[in-house]
Amino acid sequence: MSVQKILSDLDSTRDARESLYKFFHQHPELSLQEHQTSAKIQEELEASGIEVIRIGETGLVGVISNGEGPVIAMRGDIDGLPMAEQSDKDYAAAGVTQVDQNTGKETPVAHTCGHDFHISCLLGAVQALNSHKDTWSGTFLAVFQPAEENAAGAKEMVANGIVDKLPKPDVYLGQHVLGSLPGGAVGTRAGAMLSAAASIEITIHGKGSHGSMPNLGVDPIVLGSAIVTRLQTIVAREIAATETAVVTVGSFHAGTKSNIIPDSAVLQLNTRAYDTDVAAHLHEAIERIVRKECEAARSPREPEFRYYDQYPLTENDAEPTAKVRTAFDEYFGENSVDLAPIPASEDFSVIPDAFGSPYTYWGLGGFADHTTAPGNHSPFFAPDLQPTLDRGTEAIIVAVSPWLLKES
Amino acid sequence: MSVQKILSDLDSTRDARESLYKFFHQHPELSLQEHQTSAKIQEELEASGIEVIRIGETGLVGVISNGEGPVIAMRGDIDGLPMAEQSDKDYAAAGVTQVDQNTGKETPVAHTCGHDFHISCLLGAVQALNSHKDTWSGTFLAVFQPAEENAAGAKEMVANGIVDKLPKPDVYLGQHVLGSLPGGAVGTRAGAMLSAAASIEITIHGKGSHGSMPNLGVDPIVLGSAIVTRLQTIVAREIAATETAVVTVGSFHAGTKSNIIPDSAVLQLNTRAYDTDVAAHLHEAIERIVRKECEAARSPREPEFRYYDQYPLTENDAEPTAKVRTAFDEYFGENSVDLAPIPASEDFSVIPDAFGSPYTYWGLGGFADHTTAPGNHSPFFAPDLQPTLDRGTEAIIVAVSPWLLKES
Amino acid sequence: MSVQKILSDLDSTRDARESLYKFFHQHPELSLQEHQTSAKIQEELEASGIEVIRIGETGLVGVISNGEGPVIAMRGDIDGLPMAEQSDKDYAAAGVTQVDQNTGKETPVAHTCGHDFHISCLLGAVQALNSHKDTWSGTFLAVFQPAEENAAGAKEMVANGIVDKLPKPDVYLGQHVLGSLPGGAVGTRAGAMLSAAASIEITIHGKGSHGSMPNLGVDPIVLGSAIVTRLQTIVAREIAATETAVVTVGSFHAGTKSNIIPDSAVLQLNTRAYDTDVAAHLHEAIERIVRKECEAARSPREPEFRYYDQYPLTENDAEPTAKVRTAFDEYFGENSVDLAPIPASEDFSVIPDAFGSPYTYWGLGGFADHTTAPGNHSPFFAPDLQPTLDRGTEAIIVAVSPWLLKES
Amino acid sequence: MSVQKILSDLDSTRDARESLYKFFHQHPELSLQEHQTSAKIQEELEASGIEVIRIGETGLVGVISNGEGPVIAMRGDIDGLPMAEQSDKDYAAAGVTQVDQNTGKETPVAHTCGHDFHISCLLGAVQALNSHKDTWSGTFLAVFQPAEENAAGAKEMVANGIVDKLPKPDVYLGQHVLGSLPGGAVGTRAGAMLSAAASIEITIHGKGSHGSMPNLGVDPIVLGSAIVTRLQTIVAREIAATETAVVTVGSFHAGTKSNIIPDSAVLQLNTRAYDTDVAAHLHEAIERIVRKECEAARSPREPEFRYYDQYPLTENDAEPTAKVRTAFDEYFGENSVDLAPIPASEDFSVIPDAFGSPYTYWGLGGFADHTTAPGNHSPFFAPDLQPTLDRGTEAIIVAVSPWLLKES
């Protein structure tokens, strides 16, 4: 079978692929600052004779145009996180730092979300496809996307014209290494899979006064507390119990002294939902409650709402998901499993939505014992090198096979 | 009458007293850092031949022992505030700064609470008494107290042995220039006059988690908001409506990001009461509510309470207050008025309480039109030079007269 | 002195007055149903040859026109309370009931607010004045007012034309027997003395649904609880700590079953204040908070507010109060005391306000040991027969003396 | 095929079955008062020669012992609801009433939950099985259960020895007519399908006082409101967003007058969960929050919790559900659909749990247009007579076929 043929070099390339993985692991870079990572990917693609199209500062796409047939895109995100790795791997990226261009401060960086695997597996797969062009037909696009961690990278590639620079994909694919799946397993799911998310900074206005004369002011701390308390009713009362929704107030800051009633308070909220109507309801309800509580408190100015870090819903299309699942079942057998919705968010869907292409996104188990595995973004999150690296590479080849492989 | 005689030099000394006032106004110093102020006071006292007893780093007492008779102490507090003066006086202390020894940072300083008047009036009065020893008999103690603004100075003088270094006063007197009294008026009141106050820093403990998985954590922002909300019931329900009590949460700080539930929250509270039982009830109720709300929320650790800036109740003794009021009525006529309780706090009573002496404390009007006067601690608070300076000097002489003056 | 002369029959009339008191005590009647009481008063007045003017169903005034001079009115309220007396007096009104005309139900009735004393003392005083017309000059009006307990009686007398039927009083007087004053004492106070009060029934609208599907409804119990919680901030934050204000939610009713979210909730509130601006602020704040909380909750209909049992502030005028106090001090000596503001309300001021007359209202001690005395409206409230009955009669004569007595 | 054979009399029996259905529809009876219903069922079974075992007052089981093979039980619940039917069926049970034995009051009754279909379909199926004993082998138990509506009937049958009186079923089956499924469809689902539910009556204790003196009491309305507000955090913060849980406070009652602070408040809560751990967490959290809020409020007595109307989770076993689904798919084709979890509760599982038998429970569509169908318990809930009646009968025969039918 063609899949086997395409993957026939897995053993012979393993050392090189593992070395490359370790390079990426040890050279993590912050979102939109993935210059070295991006250069290394380009170097690898060009060394294999694969065409490279750069999109924006650090985004790039490897393109294999291989005759008639569907256009299939596979995305790998490439950025690291601003934190220090604490894993006990012998190749751990201990002490790596980078100057954050937004703050000017040196900050630790680590691949504690596993994007190093996403890069390496996608490189392995595009090279394998390139080596075995005779077995398949169509176009393969290896999309190396920057800045997934701050929801900026996919938007940036769209802003930089990815839709004009590439043919429209028939399907857009993605994968993520997870601590929650058994090691070596690939997990699929049709429908809502990663939540829509948004952050909102809310500034509410009171009126300062001395703490002994609250009647001369409007207390923004009592107001903010009333808001936080009342926001709990959104999930508890306004959203159907069978829906999944979260409203978290992650920060509350107001005041400087015990006896001075401050002028304002700033709240930072985060919302999650697996349904766009639910997400819209959350935001309508938050704004409604905040505005009305401000009015109840005689707030002298309208509250201000600043939305940021907005992630769309990742909702796998049924048809490509079924195709991928069938292929996975056949190839991986018991290692092809169901994936539960993940309480996290992604900007993965931004690019296929810009193209108007269907998409599916699957999970890749990363730890021999997933019951004790650290979660993504934990300083200890460093998946097992193998079988993760091989399995993630195989998964891409198997996933594209229903579209690209020639009948054998 | 002897009072007139003691005050007979008021015209001839006016220029010198006004110059001295402007010196203090233009050289404000932070609490417990009043080195220049203290040195200037000592220099003035010694130039008049008045004995000086230093108590602590910046506290000092001018002592006139003038034969048999009562011991009367009068307090003047001497520190400025960490803020920039914004008055339009031609002698405004614009741009004055001092390095705060606690933080190492340069900070603006200003006499926006009027302590420069307290110093100058007390110096004028002690010098007048010294010039006319023939008219009175007894001992007069001019207590120049540091650090009233942070409630530390009176405690510091007690810690440095004021009780052992001075004779026990038969009465302890004090005055404060106020924006709320008519210009040139002196206001008295028996009983509760300045509130008991305390600040409390409360740390409450949650359990951090990702914002999308609140169930894995304990949300300290929701907990803190429940506490702030519930604290409102103390004044609204637990304290009799006829009592005066305030519970203010002046600061609330928790969290750093919208989607991370933090580990803890820190609240800073301030309480006010005109009755020690009420003050005690406030603190019992605050601790009760905080502890129980923490338990309701499954808080993993006991909350922590740190009390600071605790001011006692200032409750004028009836007998000396009546004596002073009678003397004021006779001398000032319509300018002797009733004073309402002031929603502020003082460490004035700490020293007389340490001696076991009765006390009374009166107000001095500072602005021609008190209906538009800025409040104490406003950057615009700069009382009219006159008649305030003369009136405050006269008030001291008139107030001590019932105890010290010889029958004429 | 004339006062002594007017009161010279106190001993000889004591038995008759005590019998009459016991009659009223044993024949309590509900508000606006005081038919027997009113008839008995009329009978007594007419037996003494005093002119009677009836005002409304159960109100009446005894008028003595005695030549030139001021017009002085004294009010006695005459209704009982719908409760069963539990005192151990041998003349206790055990088991007395009356059919409540509003509900059609038989209900217990008792004079547990002491209005029986108010009637009896006023009858004694008007008869004494009538017997000694030679000692005084002017007009005395003995106003027997119904329905004080439900705030309806004074309004009813105004509605029935009391202002047109009587000459305008130069001063309007009243007294109330109290458990909080020492037995036999009379207490006066200028300024605010009884609180303004109002009751408000608030209906808030939700949208019913099955308890398992709160998202299909609007939960009025969560809304009502948010309102009650938020109302606490009015007294705690919006009213100066030095003011006296109370907002009580005395009843909260919603729902019939655990698993049905009801359509609405009904709250009954009561407010108290000693200042009309404060009272107005309370009502503005309550309506603001209720309306905004309803909007925050997506309430489908505006809330409804029904005000009832509204009592004005009773605020004694300074000049007549000082006159009465001086007269009390002279006559009663140590039994003339200061009265603290009373946390209760009255419709006493409605009639003098309708006339535009100044007023003063004093307290009368009712129990030998006032520290253990039951409060007004307690089922055990039954003041000592003597000296209360005599003292209340004397107090009226002494109080009117500055206006009516001829120079002796 | 045997299923067809068993169902071959459907046409010929239709008129009789429809008449019987209308009889039950027009003779609804309250829970545990289903005397006429029970007698009619017994009469029908005995007329067909089927053995009847009575269990308790109104419960009964039709038993067909037909040789070797599995024991299969099918449950039909038989009680009506205390409400008036408002459907426009020509056979509507308008004006039917029954005296409620608990209250002694006459109350309307109606089959607005569709139990009349459950009885009729089960009677039709057991008669069909009885008529075609040659096609199957084993034992069939038709369990007619009283009092599902108040969660009492299944417990009552267990208490009356159903486990001893019947052989242990290999599987226990049930169905429910629903407004939420397309007409004529049968819907299945493995796992949690109907929620666990419980009602809790909570009495919280305050301390009464006059509304103007809240400081002398403990306000149970403020306390109750704090509890209701705080309960919202359970679903919003303590339960994972991916779980389904509801905490509803369906009634809140306290107080009688606006100006009297009452002694206590009574809340009635209802909880729902699709997981027994979640249900347990809800109850732990409710008790924790209520107790701690009471302590925060200085409540003078422990709160009291009374649990009632407790329904277990209905969680279909995977293996029998899969068997039934396969049989449905084969027989009904597109009319065999997925069923979403239902936000309602049942005592269906009580009897199979008592036996230790696996169970599955399916839904039966009742309205041609399910998008506009009234919900169960609506006064308008009256499913279409056909195809509902036939389909529910067929469904039972098809469901039992994998266990009972002889190989053909």
From TrEMBL, chains A, B, C, D:
Q: Which GO terms describe its molecular function?
A: metal ion binding; N-acetyldiaminopimelate deacetylase activity
Coiled-coil boundaries: none
| UniProt: Mn(2+) binding residues | C113, H115, E149, H176, H377
Q: Which Pfam families match?
A: M20_dimer, Peptidase_M20
* InterPro entries hit by this protein: Amidohydrolase (IPR017439), Bact_exopeptidase_dim_dom (IPR036264), Peptidase_M20 (IPR002933), Peptidase_M20_dimer (IPR011650)
UniProt remark on cofactor binding: The Mn(2+) ion enhances activity.
EC number(s) of the enzyme? 3.-.-.-
Give the EC class as a word. hydrolase
Q: Which GO biological process categories is it annotated with?
A: diaminopimelate biosynthetic process
What residue stretches are annotated with the Peptidase M20 dimerisation domain?
A: 197-295
Question: What cofactors does this protein use?
Answer: Mn(2+)
Q: Which UniProt keywords apply?
A: Hydrolase, Manganese, Metal-binding
What name does the UniProt record give this protein?
A: Putative hydrolase YxeP
